[in-house]
Amino acid sequence: MGKFTVLNHPLIQHKLTIMRDKNTGTKDFREIASEIAELMVYEITRDLPLKSVEIETPMGKTVQKELAGKKLAVVPILRAGLGMVDGVLRLVPAAKVGHIGMYRDEETLEPHEYFLKLPPDIEQRDVFVVDPMLATGGSAKMAIEALKKHGAKNMRLVVLVAAPEGVKAIEEAFPDVDVYAAALDDHLNDDGYIVPGLGDAGDRLFGTK
Ligand code: URA
């Protein structure tokens, strides 16, 4: 079974409260989404392997640690996932960025893939799939399936707000994918929105409503 982890660092909780507030405007919403993604990646990368290197400080030779060179990729689920990419790249600037485009049929709530572009060596990379909202899990499931089909082996799903329904869907479909969220919310409403949630993440990130 994949692990589900809520990263409830006080800074993350505080920032998420600002994002949830309906009076928070596009500029702040976008900046804070990126900041939370950065803080989440800081936590999630705690297990990155290190290796020993010899360097010379002004005081002399010493053996210290550096990253063992594990390759990372971040794959936002378009379009709302874009709001988390900058935050990830601030901490992992060498990560490659893939894109997967999914849209949700407003009536059936079913996800459809319309775009996919991945780094060619995706199978060698640890992949962070990012999307602010894990609602029914439909888009994330489809995105993870598409990535698997293209060779991705080692994936983690990183979201800001998760609904229990979405977490269950990913756990059942992909025992090998760990899920990280900044918060686990109460439920989905009849329109597929997370409650209390933060509304439509894409619209609030890009000011389209
Ligand atoms: N997508 C969103 O942007 N918000 C939700 O609450 C659910 C899905």
From TrEMBL:
GO terms for molecular function: GTP binding; magnesium ion binding; uracil phosphoribosyltransferase activity. Residues 6-208 form the Phosphoribosyltransferase domain. Coiled coil: none annotated. Binds 1 Mg(2+) ion per subunit. The magnesium is bound as Mg-PRPP. SUPFAM superfamilies: PRTase-like. InterPro entries: PRTase-like, PRTase_dom, Upp_B, UPRT, UPRTase/APRTase. Keywords: Allosteric enzyme, Glycosyltransferase, GTP-binding, Magnesium, Nucleotide-binding, Transferase. Its cofactor is Mg(2+). Catalyzes the conversion of uracil and 5-phospho-alpha-D-ribose 1-diphosphate (PRPP) to UMP and diphosphate. This is Uracil phosphoribosyltransferase. It comes from Lactobacillus selangorensis. The lineage of its organism: Bacteria, Bacillati, Bacillota, Bacilli, Lactobacillales. The gene is upp.
